[in-house]
Design goal:
Length: 417
């Protein structure tokens, strides 16, 4: 109910009081006029919402930060009566979203227009439902009616291209891959050997058999086994800043960019994160894997209760010496560094990406943690607010970065002693 409606109702009460109290014809005529205006306004607003059809067409049900939510809204009137003072808007919880549009329709007319909104924040949002607001010419009544059913719209995290990504992230100093022997037939044949009792006839390599004049069978590899894991630290309390410009969003962007680049290198990639819920998606190189990982990164929030140190130890049973692990964290503490170092000692290739908390207003100094990582020979990359990721992840700290080895090495050696 609008303020104007409240004012009219108060006026109606006052006029009715004087009309019944004094019996003057003037007050009765004024009372009837006010009642007539109210009735006309209410009927007008109600009829505006009758025999309306609303359509919303959208080709995609997911987008990405930096893109646009696009679609078309069509409103059709199925009556001969004209409709005016209508406002059409999409009901959604997308931040900074506004598609309201006023319109009027003559008899059996349709209006169509395009909607487009910039996607600034990742997440799962509700879209697809349209609300039509009807007002009367006097501005006394405001009636609403909703059309269509709400649908989930997924906004994936932003990614940045990493053409110069340091090869340490995949433990691939060259184009080589680590392979493992398989007891099952795969698409990767590694070598041939003489037939042994129990070998399947399907493994016989006939060209070699003809050439060697004895049965030769194929041996198979499991293919690429240098699996990559990305561990995203989402412990509550270690992240700084306000969304969308905070350490949480930057850490998710780093993880999404790394996953995209590693999948481009045909590496099986998995994700481990402990936020509002625990995400443990094992490495896979299938075409669907990137979608699964991006969907998880779109929904995850920095509300975890498990410390980074504890989460690394919990993840260790899922890792082996053929794996690489990249830890993405804004933590300036050093308690988790021994856990990372323990993985390195069992043959797991480890790298650490630190989101610089000081660039987001944090007060803790990273120097001690950087020294500890350097002395333990753990490649560490420092990402600052607003810094291009390709530049930050090209070289580790202490080699080609603004924090040179000459600055870190003396303190690291002293710590080692």
């Amino acid at each position: 109910m609008t303020r104007r409606t409240i004012g009219i109702l108060i006026l109606l009460a006052v006029v009715a009081f004087y009309a019944f109290g004094t019996g003057f014809p003037f007050f009765y005529r004024l009372l009837y006029a006010i009642l007539l205006v109210l009735l006309i306004g209410l009927v007008w607003a109600w009829l505006n919402l009758r025999k309306l059809e609303v359509q919303l067409t959208r080709s995609e049900h997911r987008g990405q930060v930096g893109g646009y939510l696009e679609g078309r809204i069509r409103v059709i009137s199925h009556t001969r009566l004209p409709k005016s003072w209508l406002e059409v808007t999409e009901v959604t919880d997308l931040p900074d979203y506004s598609t309201g549009r006023g319109l009027a329709l003559v008899r059996e007319q349709s209006r169509t227009w395009r909607i487009q909104t910039y996607l600034a924040r990742r997440g799962v949002y509700r879209t697809g439902q349209v609300e039509v607001i009807s007002r009367d010419p006097f501005g006394l009544f405001e009636l609403r009616r909703r059309f269509l059913q709400p649908q989930a719209y997924l906004v994936l995290p932003a990614t940045q291209p990493l053409p110069d990504l340091d090869s340490r992230f995949a433990n691939l100093p060259s184009d080589s891959r680590v392979t493992r022997r398989s007891d099952h037939i795969t698409t990767d044949a590694a070598s041939v050997r003489e037939y042994a009792s129990g070998d399947s006839l399907a493994r016989i390599h006939w060209p070699s058999t003809a050439r060697m004049n004895t049965f030769m069978v194929k041996e198979f590899d499991m293919g690429i086994s240098a699996e990559a894991w990305v561990l995203l630290d989402l412990q509550r309390g270690v992240h700084l800043g306000s969304p969308p410009d905070n350490t949480e969003e930057l850490a998710v962007t780093v993880a999404a960019s790394l996953i995209t680049r590693l999948l481009e290198l045909s590496l099986p990639v998995g994700l481990a994160a402990d936020g509002d819920q625990t995400y443990l998606l094992r490495p896979d190189s299938s075409p669907e894997q990137q979608g699964r990982l991006m969907e998880a990164l779109a929904a995850v929030r920095a509300q975890g209760q498990t410390t980074l140190e504890r989460f690394i130890y919990d993840l260790q049973p899922h890792l082996n010496r053929f794996n690489t692990l990249t830890v993405v964290t804004p933590s300036a503490h050093s308690e988790w560094i021994p856990a990372v170092d323990s993985l390195r000692h069992v043959g797991i290739n480890v790298a650490v990406v630190i989101i610089d908390p000081q660039s987001f207003g944090g007060s803790m100094d990273l120097q001690f943690s950087l020294n500890s990582l350097f002395v333990n020979d753990i490649p560490t990359y420092l990402v600052k607010r607003g810094q291009p990721l390709n530049e930050a992840l090209r070289f580790p700290v202490g080699r080609g970065s603004d924090l040179t080895a000459t600055m870190v090495a003396p303190a690291a050696r002293e710590t080692a002693r």
